[in-house]
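Take a sample.
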Amino acid sequence: MTTVPLLTAADVQDNLMVANNDLERLAGLLTDATETLMGHFYGASAQMSQLLALAESHPEWDTQAMKQAMHHMGGAVTALQFQDMSTQLIAHLQRRLRNCADRLARDVMGDDEDGEAVVEDAPLRPNPVTQDEMDAGSIELF
């Protein structure tokens, strides 16, 4: 068994924790952007619905373009639902990185004066999300 020098182990552990923090920030950015986009899409969809309702009293209007726009809005909202899968993957990666950092600290640096080093178990499944593409009607988020 090869021994890892203490400074190398500390550097690797720091890098794992920085990556974990970056993933946390990424999850926050992804959530904020998704919520903003969903709000705009729902707002535009509501306005398109109002226009379609208004068009019912004007048979001379061609509503095909509005109906297609509503279809595209629905597809866009469906595509935005990838945020749930992304969040699951980010949380999974964070648990794995934390487990690696904690095991490294425990194995190289040993227990501290407060007692035995605590290492949270790594996720059992290699991947929490089995889907890798999204088509309308094919979303399996839960």
Remarks:
- The chain has three helices and no strands.
- Confidence is low (pLDDT under 50) at residues 136-142.
